[in-house]
Design brief:
Layout lengths: L1 E2 L6 E2 L6 E10 L6 H8 L7 E8 L1 E6 L5 E5 L5 E8 L3 H11 L3 E10 L2 E10 L4 E5 L2 H20 L7 H4 L3 H15 L1
Parallel strand pairs: 3-9
Antiparallel strand pairs: 1-2, 3-7, 4-7, 5-6, 5-10, 8-9
Length: 186
C-alpha cells in the first residue's frame, strides 16, 4: 500500500499518488536545452535536478512565424516528452518569466515521472498562435539550438533594463542581431 501525501488515502497503485511541490517546472521546448536554460538563468545548471517527464493528451506545435513550440491539449493527442526541473531559485524563475515574455504564463500541470504523477508549473501560451506544424525537440536541437542560444543571450541582456512588456518592442531586432552573430560564428 502507498499513501498519498495530499490526503493520506491508501492505494495499491503508486501512479495514483500525486506529489505537489511547486518548485518543479516542466519544460517542453527550448528550455530543455542546457545551453538555452543556462543562457536564460545566467548561471550553471549543475545544482538543478533534471528528470524526464511526460504529459499525456498533448502535442507540440511550432508557433506561427517562430522556431519555438507551444503545447496544446486534446484527448486524441499521444502526449509530450519534456524535462522536469527542480531547484530553480527565485532569481532563476524571475529570469525565466522574462524570457518567456508576455506570451507565456506559468500554469499548473500534472506530469508523469516514472510511475508518479507530479504537479508542476509549465508555460502556457497567451496570445500566440500555434501552426499546424509539429515541433520536435530533436529536430530543433540539430537545426536551431545554436541560434536559439545566441538569441536567448541577447534577449537576456534586456533583463532588469526593461519589463517583458517593454522589451517586446525589441524582439525583431534581437532576432536579426542573433542571426547576424550566428552567421559570423558559423
Amino acid at each position: 500500500m502507498h499513501t498519498s501525501p495530499i490526503n493520506e488515502y491508501q492505494t495499491k497503485d503508486p501512479a495514483r499518488i500525486i506529489l505537489i511541490t511547486m518548485d518543479h517546472y516542466f519544460f517542453y521546448g527550448t528550455l530543455r536545452s542546457l545551453f538555452v536554460l543556462e543562457a536564460v538563468i545566467g548561471r550553471s545548471s549543475s545544482d538543478l535536478i533534471f528528470q524526464e517527464a511526460f504529459v499525456p493528451n498533448s502535442e507540440l506545435r511550432i508557433v506561427v512565424n517562430e522556431s519555438f513550440p507551444v503545447i496544446i491539449f486534446d484527448p486524441l493527442y499521444k502526449g509530450v516528452n519534456g524535462t522536469l526541473v527542480q531547484g530553480l531559485n527565485s532569481k532563476d524563475v524571475s529570469r525565466i518569466l522574462f524570457f518567456e515574455d508576455v506570451e507565456f504564463t506559468p500554469q499548473k500541470l500534472l506530469v508523469r515521472v516514472g510511475q508518479k504523477n507530479i504537479q508542476a508549473k509549465y508555460f502556457s501560451q497567451q496570445g500566440v498562435r500555434p501552426s499546424d506544424d509539429p515541433w520536435s525537440f530533436e529536430e530543433w536541437k540539430k537545426k536551431e539550438e545554436k541560434l536559439s542560444t545566441i538569441t536567448a543571450k541577447l534577449w537576456m541582456e534586456l533583463y532588469e533594463k526593461y519589463t517583458a512588456i517593454e522589451a517586446e518592442q525589441y524582439w525583431s531586432d534581437i532576432k536579426k542581431k542573433a542571426i547576424s552573430k550566428f552567421n559570423l560564428n558559423d
